[in-house]
Amino acid sequence: MKYFSIKELTRSTTARRLGIDNTPPASAVIALHQLVDHVLDPLREAWGGPIRVNSGYRCPQLNKAVGGTPGSQHQRGEAADITVGSRSGNRRLLALIKRLDLPVDQCIDEKGCRWIHVSHRTGHNRHLYMKF
Asked: Which residues lie closer than 8 Å to 93 by C-beta, 6 or more apart?
């Protein structure tokens, strides 16, 4: 983990505001390390500048509070929502993810590139690219 930390990947203003303990179990910490090592750090290295994590690990209570899907990969530490601060920058970041052919399970352009959802899982990654 060169550019990202577990603290950054578990930080949540919603959890803090609602008093939710968003401490990940050991299995989610392992998955977060895999996400960073295989996707986020290589992406940050290639991007050459900061990438901010809007949402990483979410405990089930937090996932429900933010309207996440019940089976969200965020709950297993396999996903992060990221941004470089602008829609145009996020579009370039999305193109870079595709060009680098990173081992993503899902890569989702969320709401016209307001942010990008990336996930990685140990084993087979589907390389699904979608827009929502």
From this structure: 43, 47, 51, 82, 84, 116
Mention the CATH class of domain 6-131.
alpha beta
Q: Give the span between the Cα atoms of 115 and 107, in whole angstroms.
A: 11
Report field, pTM of the whole predicted structure over 0.90: yes
What pLDDT digit, counting tens, does each position of 29-44 carry?
Answer: 999 999 999 999 999 9
List, edge to edge, every strand of the sheet that includes 128-131: 52-55, 79-83, 115-119, 106-110, 128-131
| Residues 8-21: tens digit of each pLDDT | 999 999 999 999 99
